[in-house]
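>> Question from a student workshop board

For tomorrow's exercise we were told to take the sequence and the ligand below, predict the bound structure, and bring the output to class. My setup keeps failing. Could a helper post the expected result so I can at least see what it should look like? The ligand is iron/sulfur cluster.
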Amino acid sequence: MLQPIEPVMDASFPPGHPRDLGGPWHSEAACRSDEAGLFFAPSKEPTAARLSREEAAKRVCARCPVMLECREHALLQPEPYGVWGGMTAAERRVVLARRRRREVELQRPAPQIAAAG
Ligand code: SF4
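>> Workshop helper replied:
Here is what the output should look like for this input. Compare the format with yours to find the bug.
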């Protein structure tokens, strides 16, 4: 009797990375065929190695046809780890903080402009 084929998950890619998702844009992900482990840090990775790995991952993202979809997905979830949409987790936190500040500013009443006298 035939057994169902189990999907092979690369242990270097936590579930949820574009190459493992099954959504409409994930099949276009450039990282589907790239070196495993490029997008997520191994434990106790030295800073210089992390920076080098992240730059290599960003170069893959730069030629990815679904970079904007991926980036927005990672910002909306939000995805706490790894390089998504050409951005590191730290860079995404900065963007999210800016978005929150902008939302707060938009909710404030507009300043009254005094009439010139
Ligand atoms: S933008 Fe980067 S992380 Fe996102 S799908 Fe493309 S290659 Fe993968």
